[in-house]
Amino acid sequence: MEGERGPLLLIGGAEDKVGSRTILSRFAQLAGGNQARITVVATASSFQQLVGQRYMALFTALDVAHVDMLPVHDRVHAQRTEPLHQLDEASGIFITGGDQLKLTAVLGGTPVAQRIRRRHLAGCVIGGTSAGASAAAEHMMAYGASGIPPRKSMMQFAPGLGLISGVVIDQHFGARGRAGRLMTAVAHNPDLLGVGLDEDTAIEINSQGLLTVLGRGSVMIVDGTDMTYTDIHRVPENTPLTIFGMRLHVLSSGYHYNISSRTPWLPTIPLPIPPETEGIEGEGI
Amino acid sequence: MEGERGPLLLIGGAEDKVGSRTILSRFAQLAGGNQARITVVATASSFQQLVGQRYMALFTALDVAHVDMLPVHDRVHAQRTEPLHQLDEASGIFITGGDQLKLTAVLGGTPVAQRIRRRHLAGCVIGGTSAGASAAAEHMMAYGASGIPPRKSMMQFAPGLGLISGVVIDQHFGARGRAGRLMTAVAHNPDLLGVGLDEDTAIEINSQGLLTVLGRGSVMIVDGTDMTYTDIHRVPENTPLTIFGMRLHVLSSGYHYNISSRTPWLPTIPLPIPPETEGIEGEGI
Q: Using CA atoms, how far apart are residues B207 and B201, in angstroms rounded to an integer?
């Protein structure tokens, strides 16, 4: 895999930590399973030490051989060489939740941020949950209000860590009612694909830009390619927006989406038929 | 206008009753202004007398010449001839909020329901707010849960009053987070167009099926024509649905949508340029 970009595992927050732990297990597996060396980046959190230690314990409980935490609390730490060595040795880098603006304000433009990008380009898997998922993209949502109807200025953009471009990621999507701000984001420039991740739900993006959903909830994809009109540039702040012709996909576990061609795909492994629909009545349910 | 179907004014609930009263004024205007004769149908409400009297007072305050209320509390009342005479004399029939299932369970299949349809076909304007808006359609949502991600069985259909077909209407749309259930409704059979009305927001539908938005919020239109896939028929209850390729429009006041051709339109009267964007800097904002 030398020279090939690593996978990205972007999680909508609140991933299961006590039950089947599908998503965290998948991250551990992508990082090398019990041979993995995972570095936790908890810089987004105000409770960095606590959150970092929690994820260290979680990955240790999943039989990961080596787990450590990046000691980067501020921009001075982010200039040191010690964390760079940690990142070089990691087979997986996991970015926790918190505030994505804290993450980019502390790491942006530092050798640590550059090294995370470089390790990803060299094949290292990067995981991000909640703020960590949003900040992974080149363009991230920095602030935002809840609500379904898109409104002018209900969200703002900020530059993210740049691990993936062409998408804007939102998280805690259903739980916090964030459809409006994702559509508003896309209306700014439909060149960006809007991706809304529910809690305990993740997308795994491979080096070819093929996305696979895993976890308990849905992923909503807002594609503005065919948008024929929006009034976002002319309405006052907090006014409802008009948008013609967004294309929307809702994907649950196992489904795919090709980010480059902007097309959804059926699961490559057929989903099991749920027991409710089987029985002597056959198809006549 | 003899022989031409009357306009429909369907409101997402909580329409302004103390300020500019844009929507209620529009209804009064469509019914004939100070020459109007408005009959209020408050059968959907558990507080029928109270709600009916409130709307009577509201229309009276808007200088409507004659306002009365349909005395139909149960199916026995709905068989009487007196309400039919009231409906025959009305130039506008306004159906209040409450429970759409109470409305259809009491009025469904009665001479009163038939007469409302006949009056509408003969040119009488019909208004409906909240439950009254949902029940206007041939297929209505009867129960439903909140939330953005569509899930199997998060809503159920019931037959409505049949004043308009081909659409399913939801109301209190943004305020109650109802995007998921509207998409679920459309996934059942994309022959139906999903229309989600925000509070204090209405659609006026003319006899040609051209819809115009008025009021403070947004109208979300979910068009499943180009849907290429859904798993609604195979997943268990309450499971997140997968849906490929819904087309979504968000329309605010003044915008149009042609229900027959399923195309959004710009306002026919140009919207004023908001003052924020004017000034000596010209376009360079």
A: 20
Q: What is the ipTM of this complex?
A: 0.88
Structure tokens that stand for A79 in this block: 């200039």
Closest listed residue to residue B11, CA positions, set B164, B207, B222, B172:
B172
The amino acid at A19: G
Instruction: Phi first, then psi: give them for residue B119, nearest 5 degrees.
Output: -60, -40
**This prediction's pTM:** 0.90
pLDDT single digits (tens) A234-278: 999 999 999 999 999 999 999 999 999 999 999 985 544 544 444
CB atoms within 10 A of CB A281: 8
Instruction: Collect all residues of chain A within an 8 Å Cβ-Cβ radius of residue B216.
Output: 240
Task: Summarize pLDDT for B52-61 with one digit per residue, the tens.
Answer: 999 999 999 9
Q: Assign domain A8-260 one CATH number from 3.40.50.300, 1.20.1440.230, 2.60.40.10, 3.40.50.880.
A: 3.40.50.880
Tell me the C-alpha distance between A7 and A24, whole Å.
14
Which pair of tokens denotes residue A275? 């027991």
What CATH code is assigned to B8-277?
3.40.50.880
Among A237, A246, A274, the residue with its CB nearest the CB of B236 is A274
Q: Could you say which of B234, B236, B242 has the minimum Cβ distance to residue A250?
A: B242
CB contact under 8 A, B242 and A255: yes
Structural domain spans, chain A:
8-260
pLDDT surpasses 50 at B284: no
